[in-house]
Amino acid sequence: MRTFLWAGIAIVFLCIQGAACAGFSVSYTFVNPQGNLTDGTPVTVTCGIPRTGVLPYDQLVFSTDLNDPVWEPVVVARGQETPVHPAATTADSVTINGAVFSSPAPVQAELRMKLRGTVPYNHTTGQRLLAIRQIDADGFPYAYPSGFLLPMPGAPPKDLQETTLVTATPLIIPVYTGTLSETPAAVPADTFSPPVSSAKRIVARTLPPESTPAAAVPGGPLMVCAAIAGALLYFQREGRL
Question: What is the mean pLDDT of each run of 10 residues along the chain (241 residues)?
């Protein structure tokens, strides 16, 4: 009986502790600009988290899918803003310790996070504009609520239209081929035209009668005899002298 009694007390204690530490809550969120977002648009997200449900040893992990995120956390208490130094920082997230709520419990305090970034190209609604998780002192996330998620607004971009590739048709020049015969084809005799030579052609011309030269005297025995007689006559004359 005592075993069941202690077990019941433990269950009630855990239930009370779980109810007391139900987890963080988000009191407000602001997104500028509002509505659907286009690729490359600068965005500013602001949210507020009250201290209720956040223990000093808890941690709040903020993450985003925006490009080049800049985190600006401050604690607002009694109308004053106190900058907060993150416990850890990565390329797309920061971690805030619950100990930032150091003011007394009766004082209402709120963690205000401002996030600046740009919408990534080819973004989808499945990406996170802002996500928040709470981790306990042992490093385990809270079961309830499991976290806060602010999806990336805007429908995913339409698929690019398929580009029709136009293939240039190459220029086809028909080439006719055939089998050459070893024996040249016969050419009819009446159609044969002899090739014209490139050499000069000599044309015989008939001279008129008045331009015809006199016939030459044939040089025969009479010419020889005349030459001898002339020689003898010459020598005789010389002898007379």
Answer: 47 41 85 93 96 92 97 94 94 94 83 97 92 91 78 65 46 51 49 48 48 47 64 67 44
Look at residue 57 and tell me if it is in a domain.
yes
Q: Identity (one letter) of the amino acid at 15? A: C
* CA gap 131, 69 in Å, rounded: 13
Angstrom distance (rounded) from CA 152 to CA 66: 9
Interacting residues of 170 by C-beta distance below 8 A, sequence separation 6+: none
N-terminal to C-terminal alpha carbon distance within the chain:
203
Query: What is the spatial distance between Cα 115 and Cα 45, in angstroms, rounded to a whole number?
Result: 5
Residue 61 CB neighbour total at 10 angstroms: 19
For the sheet with 59-63, list strands across it. Answer: 88-89, 93-97, 59-63, 128-135, 148-151
- The CATH code of the domain that includes 72 is 2.60.40
pTM of the complete model: 0.57
Asked whether residue 101 is assigned to any structural domain, the reply reads yes
Looking at residue 141, the DSSP 8-state letter turns out to be B
Q: Report how many domains make up the chain.
A: 1
Residue 50's domain spans which residues? 21-151
Q: CA 201 to CA 197: how far, in whole Å?
A: 9
